[in-house]
Amino acid sequence: RWHHILACDLGFNDPTSFTVFAYHDNDPNAYIRKSVKRQGMDLTDVAREARALDGVYGFDAWIVDNANKQAVEEMVNRHGIPWQPAEKAGKADFIEIMNAEWIQGKIKLDPATCGQLVDELESLVWDDRTERREEHPACQNHCTDGALYGWRRCYAYISRALVEAAATGTPAWQQQQQRDIEKRALERHRPREDWE
């Protein structure tokens, strides 16, 4: 089954971003289906956009940057948006882990619906003026923050690919039959724990 996650990085003067992640029980990859940002959105605008996206994707989880708790609670209580706070601890470490997933090809995105995220990914750098691992303050990071929040809530890494059954009578089918017979024989002859 497909799971969809909405991740939102709130802003007003800075843009608010909406990033939609998807992962499947039988696919080890995470997919960014959409990532957009808009400036000047009030809480009602954010709630409407979140509901509209839910109408398309049907979210399993709604993740938000909870820095402004009052605003988030207003959307929960007034608009019924089931926001959950984003995991923000260890941001630099998780950026490094996420970067490794990008390099391994385990995160995929649609450039047609994630252009603003792509722009941020191509320009966001570490601030080399500090000893701490922090993003450069002159760089936009609204979609990338949303992507990080959503990725941290994806469980694609525990997904397992389906094993296709070999066609009856083929050499692969015969090998699988032999492994099954050996496995059952071992289970029959394994000492039971209650024999001790």
How would you describe what is shown here?
The protein has 196 residues and is an alpha/beta fold. It has six helices and six strands, in the order βββαβαβαβααα. The protein has a six-stranded mixed beta sheet with strand order 5-4-1-2-3-6. A hairpin with a 2-residue loop joins β2 (16-24) and β3. The longest helix has 19 residues, at 171-189. The two termini are 44 Å apart.
Short description:
The protein has 196 residues and is of the alpha/beta class. Helices cover 40% and strands 19% of the residues. The chain is built from 6 helices and 6 strands.
Q: Top keywords for this entry?
A:
196 residues, alpha/beta, 6 strands, single chain, six-stranded mixed beta sheet
The helix/strand series, from N terminus to C terminus, equals EEEHEHEHEHHH
Counting H and I runs of at least 4 residues, what is the number of helices?
A: 6
- Beta content: 15-25%
**Radius of gyration of CA atoms, rounded to a whole number:** 23 Å
Secondary structure layout plus pairing:
Elements: E1 2-9, E2 16-24, E3 27-38, H1 43-57, E4 61-64, H2 69-79, E5 84-85, H3 91-103, E6 107-109, H4 115-123, H5 142-153, H6 171-189
Parallel strand pairs: 1-4, 3-6, 4-5
Antiparallel strand pairs: 1-2, 2-3
Helix pairs in contact: 1-2, 4-5
